Amino acid sequence: MLIIGSWGGGKALYRNQSSAVVLGSLIPITLNLLYTFQFLPWLRKDFTPIGFALSGFAFFVGVHRFGLLRITPIAHRLVLRDIASGVLVIDLEDNIIDCNEATEVILQVSHPRIIGTPWRENREIRQFLEGVPLRERYNFETTLFQSDGKELSLEVWVCPIQEQTGKTVGTIVTIHDITERVRLSEQWRTALVELEERNERVQDLQLTLMRQDKLATMGQLTAGMLHDLNNPLTFLQSGFLAMSRYLSELLPLVPPEALEEAERQEIEEERRIILRDFEQGFSRIRESLQSLLRLSRPLPDQEPEEADLNELIEATLELAAPALRGKLNVQKEYDRPLPRILCFPGEISNVILNLLLNALHAVEEVYRAGGAYPGSLRIETCATDRGVIRCSFRDSGPGIARELREKVFEPFFTTKETGKGTGLGLSIARDVVTRRHGGALYIEYIEPGEATTFVMELPRAAL
């Protein structure tokens, strides 16, 4: 039954093998039946011995012409039919003598076309077997491109076929399609890299939050200290004014013979100059304290208030002056009078400070690349017909590529060296301007290589 099944449903080679076996078996039986039952009246002699001779010839043809005894038995297809891996059998002359259905699917070859042909004549097989030692155990991974352009990842195992005597009679090549496994492995590696990156970001965020917590604590302490400094500052200013007033009152009491009029006028002029300088100094200290208080003032329970954006910029420039001095020349073009905005002054001052420091870092980058100090920063303010107050900051730095215009506002994105920035400054600044104030913060693009222009737009206060 196996032989008949192989003849009816097998490949051409197996049908030839089965035909040789069936023919060799039926010849002597047929001749013996014809002689015994006299189906042919003219057949008076028993040709059964001749039938056995013809049967032997049929077996001889099956052995030498169709490799009946050198390859897998006829029943092999019942075993290999459902194997997902491809199986390719090659003899010592490098001819392909067998393959299963999976091989045809993977290599996109036709069984009748390749059986009995050298494997080097087949392009698909030559792709991965060229240069592979077929007389020893060997395994490797390779890539195969099918005729439709599809790329397959294959794992190939080469195993010599040996007789009981140890003589090698051929080679079995097993082909495993590992495309899906490779794809999942790549996804796993990519996911692992992303996980490591996210883990680093989480660690950076933890450090940032720790720093922010410390800064928040320091800010609260600083706010208290700044508030406490107002009292002694007021005391000093009052004391100095009183002393100056007493001096002006004592001066007329000096006898004329003890102090000439010219000396008296000179002392009075010096007193006025000293008084003016001290008043300017006290005023500058008070303004600096107010700017620091505005930046460090806690947000809970704080109500928005009307403010002049020009004044906020000036106060922040005053605060940042020590850092900018000698590195950045600030050119100001203010629209005056500028309509007021309704805002949280401390938050907007923080945004302005962030933009100033970004401009400073851009100029420092140019300097490290061989440029010279000072760089330039142009600040412009104006009222638009859209009911918003527009403020632009244009620096002389190297510029930001067009494709990075939005990325710079993403959390943790930074172009600075490791340890030089957290990538949170612009993200927080945009959140403050857009979410807290209903405004906009964006980069105005001009041309590649041009300086960066940050634009902040804030709604004007109701008239």
Automatic annotation (TrEMBL):
State the organism named in the record: Alkalispirochaeta sphaeroplastigenens
> Any coiled-coil ranges, and where?
185-212
| Entry keywords, A to Z | ATP-binding, Coiled coil, Kinase, Membrane, Nucleotide-binding, Phosphoprotein, Transferase, Transmembrane, Transmembrane helix, Two-component regulatory system
Highest taxon of the source? Bacteria
Q: What is this protein called?
A: histidine kinase
Q: Name one GO molecular function term.
A: protein histidine kinase activity
Q: Does the keyword Magnesium apply?
A: no
Q: Name one GO biological process term.
A: regulation of DNA-templated transcription
* Upper taxonomic lineage: Bacteria, Pseudomonadati, Spirochaetota, Spirochaetia, Spirochaetales
Enzyme Commission number, as recorded: 2.7.13.3
Domain (Histidine kinase) ranges: 224-462
What SUPFAM superfamilies does its record include?
ATPase domain of HSP90 chaperone/DNA topoisomerase II/histidine kinase, PYP-like sensor domain (PAS domain)
Catalytic activity as recorded in UniProt = ATP + protein L-histidine = ADP + protein N-phospho-L-histidine
